[in-house]
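Name: PC4-domain-containing protein
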Amino acid sequence: MTGSKRGGARGGGFKKGFAKKRAASSDDESAPRAGKKAKGDEEDESIPMVPELKKDDDGNAYISLNTSGKRRVTISDYQKSTLVSIREYWVNNDGELKPGKKGISLTIDQYNTLLAAAPLIESALAKKEIEVVRPDYEADLGAKAETAKEDDKEVGEQEAEEVEQVQKVEADEDE
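Structure predicted for PC4-domain-containing protein:
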Protein backbone atom coordinates (compact mmCIF):
# COMPACT_ATOMS: atom_id res chain seq x y z
CA MET A 1 0.00 0.00 0.00
CA THR A 2 1.65 3.18 -1.12
CA GLY A 3 0.76 6.48 0.45
CA SER A 4 -0.96 4.93 3.46
CA LYS A 5 -1.28 6.88 6.67
CA ARG A 6 0.28 5.81 9.94
CA GLY A 7 -1.79 5.70 13.07
CA GLY A 8 -4.14 2.78 12.57
CA ALA A 9 -7.82 2.91 13.40
CA ARG A 10 -7.62 6.22 15.21
CA GLY A 11 -6.57 8.04 12.10
CA GLY A 12 -3.64 9.78 13.80
CA GLY A 13 -2.28 11.23 10.55
CA PHE A 14 1.36 11.24 9.53
CA LYS A 15 3.97 10.90 12.23
CA LYS A 16 5.78 14.19 12.70
CA GLY A 17 9.50 14.35 13.35
CA PHE A 18 11.02 16.31 16.17
CA ALA A 19 12.65 19.62 15.39
CA LYS A 20 16.38 19.64 15.99
CA LYS A 21 17.49 21.71 18.93
CA ARG A 22 20.20 24.18 18.10
CA ALA A 23 23.20 23.95 20.37
CA ALA A 24 24.39 27.29 21.70
CA SER A 25 28.07 28.00 21.31
CA SER A 26 28.38 28.17 25.11
CA ASP A 27 26.76 24.73 25.68
CA ASP A 28 29.08 22.43 27.56
CA GLU A 29 28.07 18.77 27.81
CA SER A 30 29.86 18.38 31.14
CA ALA A 31 28.25 21.42 32.77
CA PRO A 32 25.63 20.58 35.39
CA ARG A 33 22.09 21.61 34.55
CA ALA A 34 19.89 23.41 37.02
CA GLY A 35 16.68 21.71 38.08
CA LYS A 36 13.32 23.16 37.13
CA LYS A 37 12.11 25.70 39.70
CA ALA A 38 8.64 27.08 40.16
CA LYS A 39 8.04 30.68 39.14
CA GLY A 40 9.06 33.03 41.92
CA ASP A 41 10.67 30.22 43.96
CA GLU A 42 14.24 31.49 43.98
CA GLU A 43 14.92 31.21 47.69
CA ASP A 44 18.06 29.60 49.05
CA GLU A 45 17.12 26.12 50.34
CA SER A 46 20.39 25.91 52.32
CA ILE A 47 19.28 28.55 54.84
CA PRO A 48 18.50 26.72 58.10
CA MET A 49 14.94 27.14 59.34
CA VAL A 50 13.94 27.41 62.98
CA PRO A 51 10.45 25.92 63.25
CA GLU A 52 7.90 28.33 64.66
CA LEU A 53 4.24 27.57 65.32
CA LYS A 54 1.99 30.23 63.74
CA LYS A 55 -1.70 30.68 62.88
CA ASP A 56 -3.08 31.31 59.40
CA ASP A 57 -6.04 33.53 58.47
CA ASP A 58 -8.46 30.65 59.19
CA GLY A 59 -7.01 30.10 62.69
CA ASN A 60 -5.23 26.85 61.74
CA ALA A 61 -1.83 26.15 63.30
CA TYR A 62 1.02 25.82 60.81
CA ILE A 63 4.79 25.60 60.58
CA SER A 64 6.67 26.95 57.55
CA LEU A 65 9.16 24.56 55.98
CA ASN A 66 11.01 27.27 54.02
CA THR A 67 11.88 30.92 54.46
CA SER A 68 9.17 32.17 52.08
CA GLY A 69 6.42 30.38 53.99
CA LYS A 70 5.11 28.88 50.75
CA ARG A 71 5.71 25.31 51.92
CA ARG A 72 3.86 24.49 55.13
CA VAL A 73 2.70 21.80 57.52
CA THR A 74 -0.81 22.78 58.61
CA ILE A 75 -3.10 21.24 61.22
CA SER A 76 -6.73 21.78 60.29
CA ASP A 77 -10.21 20.36 60.80
CA TYR A 78 -12.34 19.14 57.90
CA GLN A 79 -15.69 17.35 58.25
CA LYS A 80 -15.18 16.40 61.93
CA SER A 81 -11.68 15.10 61.17
CA THR A 82 -8.29 16.62 62.02
CA LEU A 83 -5.78 16.63 59.17
CA VAL A 84 -2.04 17.21 58.99
CA SER A 85 -1.31 18.73 55.58
CA ILE A 86 2.05 19.22 53.91
CA ARG A 87 1.36 21.59 51.06
CA GLU A 88 2.79 24.26 48.77
CA TYR A 89 1.03 27.62 48.70
CA TRP A 90 0.76 30.25 45.96
CA VAL A 91 0.08 33.99 45.97
CA ASN A 92 -3.09 35.22 44.25
CA ASN A 93 -3.52 38.62 42.56
CA ASP A 94 -4.53 40.18 45.89
CA GLY A 95 -1.28 39.03 47.52
CA GLU A 96 -2.99 36.34 49.65
CA LEU A 97 -1.38 32.94 50.19
CA LYS A 98 -3.65 30.14 48.95
CA PRO A 99 -3.15 26.36 49.21
CA GLY A 100 -2.04 24.79 45.95
CA LYS A 101 -2.55 21.35 44.39
CA LYS A 102 0.92 20.14 45.34
CA GLY A 103 0.70 18.47 48.70
CA ILE A 104 -0.94 15.82 50.81
CA SER A 105 -3.38 15.81 53.71
CA LEU A 106 -2.96 13.01 56.23
CA THR A 107 -5.52 11.79 58.73
CA ILE A 108 -4.21 11.38 62.27
CA ASP A 109 -3.93 7.59 61.70
CA GLN A 110 -1.87 8.19 58.54
CA TYR A 111 0.27 10.76 60.35
CA ASN A 112 0.91 8.27 63.20
CA THR A 113 1.90 5.64 60.61
CA LEU A 114 4.33 8.11 59.02
CA LEU A 115 5.89 8.88 62.41
CA ALA A 116 6.16 5.16 63.19
CA ALA A 117 7.92 4.67 59.85
CA ALA A 118 10.43 7.48 60.55
CA PRO A 119 13.15 5.10 61.87
CA LEU A 120 12.83 2.97 58.73
CA ILE A 121 13.04 6.05 56.52
CA GLU A 122 16.06 7.26 58.49
CA SER A 123 17.70 3.85 58.07
CA ALA A 124 17.17 3.93 54.29
CA LEU A 125 18.67 7.44 54.15
CA ALA A 126 21.65 6.32 56.25
CA LYS A 127 22.36 3.58 53.69
CA LYS A 128 22.62 6.37 51.12
CA GLU A 129 24.99 8.20 53.50
CA ILE A 130 22.46 10.99 54.09
CA GLU A 131 22.46 12.27 57.65
CA VAL A 132 19.22 13.53 59.15
CA VAL A 133 18.64 15.39 62.40
CA ARG A 134 16.62 13.47 64.98
CA PRO A 135 14.20 15.63 66.91
CA ASP A 136 14.49 15.78 70.66
CA TYR A 137 10.87 15.51 71.76
CA GLU A 138 11.83 16.22 75.38
CA ALA A 139 13.41 19.59 74.51
CA ASP A 140 11.64 22.92 74.87
CA LEU A 141 11.05 23.81 71.24
CA GLY A 142 10.19 27.40 72.04
CA ALA A 143 7.16 27.19 69.75
CA LYS A 144 5.26 30.42 70.03
CA ALA A 145 1.86 31.36 68.72
CA GLU A 146 1.97 34.30 66.34
CA THR A 147 -0.81 35.98 68.29
CA ALA A 148 1.07 35.96 71.62
CA LYS A 149 1.56 39.37 73.19
CA GLU A 150 5.02 40.73 73.90
CA ASP A 151 4.37 40.40 77.66
CA ASP A 152 3.60 36.70 77.22
CA LYS A 153 6.83 36.37 75.25
CA GLU A 154 8.87 37.87 78.09
CA VAL A 155 7.21 35.58 80.65
CA GLY A 156 7.90 32.59 78.39
CA GLU A 157 11.57 33.55 78.11
CA GLN A 158 11.84 33.87 81.89
CA GLU A 159 10.23 30.44 82.31
CA ALA A 160 12.61 28.97 79.73
CA GLU A 161 15.59 30.41 81.63
CA GLU A 162 14.25 28.93 84.87
CA VAL A 163 13.84 25.51 83.21
CA GLU A 164 17.42 25.76 81.89
CA GLN A 165 18.71 26.56 85.39
CA VAL A 166 16.81 23.60 86.88
CA GLN A 167 18.20 21.31 84.16
CA LYS A 168 21.74 22.52 84.89
CA VAL A 169 21.29 21.86 88.61
CA GLU A 170 19.90 18.39 87.90
CA ALA A 171 22.80 17.67 85.54
CA ASP A 172 25.31 18.79 88.20
CA GLU A 173 23.62 16.52 90.77
CA ASP A 174 23.91 13.55 88.38
CA GLU A 175 27.69 14.04 88.10
